[in-house]
Amino acid sequence: xxxxxxxxxxxxxxxxxxxxxxxxxxxxxxxxxxxxxxxxxxxxxxxxxxxxxxxxxxxxxxxxxxxxxxxxxxxxxxxxxxxxxxxxxxxxxxxxxxxxxxxxxxxxxxxxxxxxxxxxxxxxxxxxxxxxxxxxxxxxxxxxxxxxxxxxxxxxxxxxxxxxxxxxxxxxxxxxxxxxxxxxxxxxxxxxxxxxxxxxxxxxxxxxxxxxxxxxxxxxxxxxxxxxxxxxxxxxxxxxxxxxxxxxxxxxxxxxxxxxxxxxxxxxxxxxxxxxxxxxxxxxxxxxxxxxxxxxxxxx
Length: 300
What we know:
alpha/beta, Spore Coat Polysaccharide Biosynthesis Protein SpsA, Chain A, eight-stranded mixed sheet, two-stranded antiparallel ribbon, 10 strands
């Protein structure tokens, strides 16, 4: 597949992790299309005084970045938090460009990440049943019959992803259908086909226990009977699972431990495979201890 005439802009969200950010940018600079791509960076402000030195270091580094067609840095003097920053920033960029590639400050990407993302954004833009594409592939066990390089899953990824204005505009950030889902077990089960962790996350989001744009984006995808496109072999590695991130409170090196350098074959007519979706859901099964905690503490 040939690349589109206009490449999608890259939007990167960062906060107070200069070391992670530097690695993320360095990997992005090694991409084949970096010099032809526009980079827009949203730098969130401090939550408290202890963040100020790190954010100053982040912004000093941002001022030194090169290697892209253009670089725009948007600095906030106050702290908006990741969810509000992503919703606002992605909306702004989509209103200007119509499509977007999104990274956070703890994502290493393969050298052909931008090639794949631009090709996928072109291939699936007209598909009403596809709301997002991602370069991250969780390490699931695929059935022997599955030979494609991509698959559909009823979940949106927040790790190295992209979307289009027409799909983003359909997001329901207020989760207005939650009461209906609470009353309808069948619909809840359908929502959980992307992982049994989704329902507890959505409830916690609405109770303000967590602040997640991604669970609301997945919920919006569900409301529209839409899928996310995932690669069988990941081109994203998350380096923020060391306890340093806003939404990661535990340490693990398991997420995205390997990245593939192989070319991804894109099938514009890809269809859901139910065995693959089940294997995907199995990966996101909750540990028994967390299920018990959700039931006792949150009555979920």
